[in-house]
Design a protein that fits this description.
Length: 209
């Protein structure tokens, strides 16, 4: 069983959905504070392997944490607060981050690449990556962007095999970054093909983005 804190963030949704596809039981924590989250919830909410809670306290009250977790995955560093009581029930706690936030010694921080995919925060010309806007035709996007499903497949494998290293990093196979802790994410389809498919998805569902 996995605990995903931030399960209806667009990245959290993809990780949650992939785990469910693999037959894993998932406990998701998130607040339903936007139309986008309400819509993403519909895609996973009916899966019998998925349980949603709006807070860590609700998970504790339901005694779900007593069963233990294969891993606790925090989608954003700010999600780490208010989860300490649950963290003792997993030997692996991972937190995604896109910039160098302060470290918590109880959590393995995982530096992630520039991710793109269905439900990403975007417009017609580019993606909103934290406080940064990256155009699809920019050199940064061409070198660093990693498709969400390719990343999720590599990340879940890492989470299942992890022995709580101090730090980890994922990077596109086109990236020039060098670090002994880097996991290279291989693309399974060209960026051009992906963007064409994503534009079609955005055109169809733009009102849900």
């Amino acid at each position: 069983m996995f605990l995903i804190v931030g399960c209806y963030d667009w990245v959290g949704y993809h990780i949650t959905n992939k785990l469910l596809e693999q037959g894993q039981e998932v406990i998701g924590i998130d607040t339903m504070d936007s139309d986008k989250k309400e819509n993403l919830a519909m895609f996973v909410g009916r899966n019998g392997l998925f349980s949603h809670y709006d807070s860590a306290q609700a998970v504790i009250k339901d005694k779900k944490h007593k069963e233990g977790f294969k891993a606790i995955i925090f989608i954003k560093p700010e999600d780490i607060s208010d989860i300490e009581e649950i963290s003792y029930f997993s030997q692996v706690s991972l937190c995604l981050r896109s910039k160098n936030e302060n470290m918590d010694e109880c959590v393995t921080f995982v530096d992630i690449p520039l991710l793109y995919g269905e439900w990403m925060p975007r417009d017609n010309e580019g993606i909103f990556h934290g406080e940064e806007y990256v155009r699809f035709d920019s050199d940064q996007f061409k070198k660093e962007a990693t498709y969400i499903e390719d990343f999720v497949n590599a990340f879940i494998k890492f989470a299942e095999e992890s022995e709580s290293p101090d730090y980890a990093m994922f990077a596109s196979d086109k990236s020039e970054k060098e670090d002994e802790n880097i996991t290279i994410v291989r693309e399974t389809k060209s960026q051009g093909e992906r963007l064409q498919e994503l534009d079609e998805h955005y055109e169809k569902f733009h009102f849900l983005y």
